[in-house]
Design a protein that fits this description.
This protein has ten helices and eight strands. It has about 230 residues and is of the alpha/beta class. The longest helix is centred in the C-terminal third of the chain and has 21 residues, at about 160-180. The structure holds pyridoxal-5'-phosphate.
Amino acid sequence: MQNNFKEIKNWCDERKVNLVAISKTYPVESITLLYKQGQRMFGENKVQEIMMKECQLPTDVQWHLVGHLQTNKVKFVAPFVSLIHSVDSLKLLQEINKHAIKNSRVQNVLLQIFIADEKTKFGLSEEECFSLLERKEINKMKNIRIEGLMGMATNTNDEKKVRKEFKGLKKMLDTIKKIYSSENIEMKTLSMGMSSDYKIAVEEGSNMVRLGSVIFGERKTYISLI
Ligand SMILES: *Cc1c(COP(=O)(O)O)cnc(C)c1O
């Protein structure tokens, strides 16, 4: 386990790419091992799991939520989460803003964009994303900062297809940068790339990769944490 970590971390550093270690299903001990090697950004996809781990790890860990977030669970992560990658509605943004105010924080978020041709993945279409950004309500959400986009490519060996999906997301980010200027929209983060496709993602402009199995080892389904 973690044999690859140092090498991958260096690879990312050389390219100025942020590495989020996706620790879902892995025990706290595995996170601690990476923490001791200097890793600070960790990501989880479930609210209960991120809460359970957050209280067992040092306070300078930057927790990223990468999974789908239900509005009724925002209150649980609002006190500590450093970046929410998976915002896909105005209602969710409003709820996040409300709880950010309660916690006297500015919450950084990414909009999750649907780029794969799989039915199971969450996210906004390009059209939905643009109409969301046009909503006047967003300007008033002083405790929200939309700092970029997140996307997951189709799970396939077809490299061309994956590359095309990533290219499309990068283009969207660039377009939004040009069109939308608002105090709380600053499109600087492009979260794309997982264990199987992060090199392609970085070639296509990603500056934040979300890596689980390639650094922690195969995910074992028998570990049931919650
Ligand atoms: C699990 C997960 C990852 C990491 O997946 P690996 O294939 O293990 O690298 C990245 N992003 C999201 C949204 C995930 O749920």
